[in-house]
């Protein structure tokens, strides 16, 4: 993290920790680094210009904190409705919430089915390898090759652990689906996605959000539309960091996450680096595999207009920046299902691109035994009975 103390250095804030009235920077010069970070963000989040995102991030009454303490209540929907009323709109209609709930359940069903299908394919391949290793073990026992026998027993044990992990993960996804299949769409959204959805539905008309693909996965940036250029009037955070903050009490950090390397992205989308995808019938991610049209950044803000009858129409302005550098803009009337679909499409596209880039530097990261299994499989193919 840029600016953080290095090993052997003083844990107190350096000279830039002095107060700044113009940018609302508190005095942190005599604090430890950890205390300074907490004090800095508590001060920034409490400023009027950070409402209500500052409240969501720092208040003990934030819906993201209350839902962990009192999970039986729907804090997110209630907070959204209060914000919508505050800006002169109306609460989100029940029929729109129901439609979004149904679509969110459909997306989760697709993801769960895809996970189980891929798990079954992985298990089938490992069962095929298991037969090879059992055959090799029999040869080693008959030939009294102790070293070869020990290797095969270890590989079989490792393969069994690998299969168990796959089964446990697929079962966990299925259990989660059963637990959440009747829950509301807002409760199923990741925290950053939920904050973004409040901008989408017009509850935060003075805010804009964008999501970038970084080495840390998807990173959300929330900014004020009317913020002076000399002020940092926003928040940059990842879903992982939000999980750490609200589940483990970690402080929000400084700094911008590193973007995906452009050279590696270009190698993937041009075909210079070939990715061995696993084909699964009905795979919902098939259409989002890395290409020139992969979404690298998605940005959204809304604009509302009063009608002669006193009602308000909210329009959404959405812009996707693609891997080839082009931008695709869309404008449509606010509709939760449409927005959820657009956000989910971008999420799938970014996720697959992120996985592809990570696999370029760690080609065998998908399985902790894959390299050893392949090596031993090659050895067994060369063995003559």
Q: Key features?
A:
single chain, 385 residues, alpha+beta
Shape, per Cα inertia axes: globular
Secondary-structure element pattern, one letter each = HHHHHHHHEEEHHEEEHH
Helix-and-strand structural type: alpha+beta
Look at the structure and give the mean pLDDT: 79
Q: Count the E strands.
A: 6
- Unreliable stretches, pLDDT < 50, 5 or more residues? 1-16, 363-385
DSSP summary: helix tally: 12
Cα-atom Rg, whole angstroms?
25 Å
Strand order of the biggest β-sheet: 3-2-1-4-5-6
The helix content is: 40-55%
Distance between the termini: 57 Å
Q: What's the main sheet like? A: 6 strands, antiparallel
Strand content: 5-15%
Question: What does this 3D model show about the protein?
Answer:
- The protein has 385 residues and is an alpha+beta fold.
- It is 50% helix and 13% strand.
- Helix 5 packs parallel to helix 11 and helix 5 runs parallel beside helix 12 (370-381).
- The longest helix has 49 residues, at 94-142.
- It is globular and about 90 Å long.
Map the helices and strands.
Layout: H1 33-45, H2 53-58, H3 63-69, H4 75-86, H5 94-142, H6 146-180, H7 185-188, H8 191-200, E1 207-214, E2 217-224, E3 234-238, H9 239-248, H10 262-269, E4 295-306, E5 312-322, E6 327-333, H11 336-361, H12 370-381
Antiparallel strand pairs: 1-2, 1-4, 2-3, 4-5, 5-6
Helix pairs in contact: 5-6, 5-11, 5-12
């Amino acid at each position: 993290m840029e600016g953080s103390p290095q090993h052997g250095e003083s844990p107190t804030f350096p000279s830039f920790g002095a107060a700044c009235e113009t940018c609302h920077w508190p005095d942190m010069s005599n604090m430890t680094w950890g205390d300074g970070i907490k004090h800095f963000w508590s001060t920034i989040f409490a400023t009027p210009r950070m409402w209500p995102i500052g409240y969501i991030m720092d208040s003990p009454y934030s819906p993201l904190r209350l839902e962990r303490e009192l999970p039986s209540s729907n804090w997110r929907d209630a907070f959204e409705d209060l914000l919508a009323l505050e800006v002169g709109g109306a609460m989100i209609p029940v029929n729109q919430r129901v439609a979004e709930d149904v679509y969110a359940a459909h997306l989760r069903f697709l993801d769960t089915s895809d996970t189980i299908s891929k798990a079954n394919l992985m298990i089938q391949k490992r069962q095929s390898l298991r037969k090879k290793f059992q055959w090799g073990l029999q040869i080693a026992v008959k030939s009294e090759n102790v070293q070869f026998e020990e290797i095969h027993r270890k590989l079989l044990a490792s393969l069994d652990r690998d299969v168990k992990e796959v089964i446990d993960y697929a079962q966990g996804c299925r259990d989660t689906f059963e637990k959440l299949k009747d829950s509301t769409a807002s409760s199923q959204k990741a925290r950053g996605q939920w904050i973004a959805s409040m901008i989408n539905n017009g509850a935060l008309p003075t805010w804009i959000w964008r999501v970038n693909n970084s080495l840390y996965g998807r990173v959300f940036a929330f900014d004020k539309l009317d913020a002076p250029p000399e002020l940092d009037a926003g928040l940059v955070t990842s879903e992982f960091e939000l999980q750490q903050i609200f589940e483990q009490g970690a402080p929000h950090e400084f700094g911008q996450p590193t973007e995906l390397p452009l050279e590696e992205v270009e190698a993937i989308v041009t075909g210079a680096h070939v990715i061995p995808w696993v084909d699964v019938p009905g795979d919902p991610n098939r259409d989002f595999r890395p290409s020139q049209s992969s979404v690298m950044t998605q940005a959204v803000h809304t604009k509302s207009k009063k009608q002669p009858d006193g009602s308000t129409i909210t329009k959404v302005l959405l812009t996707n920046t693609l891997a080839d550098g082009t931008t695709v803009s869309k404008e449509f009337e606010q509709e939760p299902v449409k927005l959820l679909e657009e956000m989910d499409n971008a999420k799938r596209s970014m996720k697959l691109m992120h996985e592809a880039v990570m696999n370029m530097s760690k080609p065998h990261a998908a399985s902790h035994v894959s390299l050893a299994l392949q090596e031993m499989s090659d050895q067994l193919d060369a063995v003559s009975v």
